[in-house]
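pinging the channel bc i need a second pair of eyes. not urgent but kinda urgent?? the chain im working w is below, pasted from the shared doc
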Amino acid sequence: MDKAIEVLERRRLPARRTRRLKGRYESLGVVATNTPELIRKIESGLAFAALQRLDKHTGLGLSVLASIIGIPERTLARRKASGKLSPEESERLIRISGIFEQTMDLFENDLAGAIRWLTSPKKALDNQQPIQYARTELGAREVENLLGRLENGVFS
C-alpha cells in the first residue's frame, strides 16, 4: 500500500484537461439500468476491462488502482489472464469509480483538478489522500460526505 501512496505523490499531473462522463459508472464502461442489475453484475464479477477503463479515465496507473482496491500484483496478473475480477474486487472498483465520478462532477470535469484533489492529503480525512481513504466502505462514505459538503459550499 505504501508503494501506491509513493507513486501517487510522485505523479506529474496533466495540464488542465476535461473529460465528460455521461452516466454513473461510465468510467468503468458498466451499463446497468437499475440497482438490481448492477448488483448482479458485481456478484458475477466485473470484466478486467472495467479496471483498465478506469485507469484510462484517471491516468493513475493500473498498479496504483489495483493497490487501492486491494489486488496484489500477482493476483492482478491472474485477473488479467482470466479477464474477470472477483465480486469483492468488483464492489471495491465500483466504490472507487463512484468517488472518482463524484469528484469529476465537483471539479466540473477538470481531470487534473479532480486527480490533484483525490491524491492530496485532507485534514478532514485524518491527513490521508481521499483515494486511499476510500479503500473501505466507511472511508468512502466519509469521502462522499466531504465531497457533498464541498459541493454545497461547506469547506471542511
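so Residues 18 and 109 are 5 Å apart (CA to CA). and The chain has a mean pLDDT of 86. — does that match what u expected or am i reading it wrong
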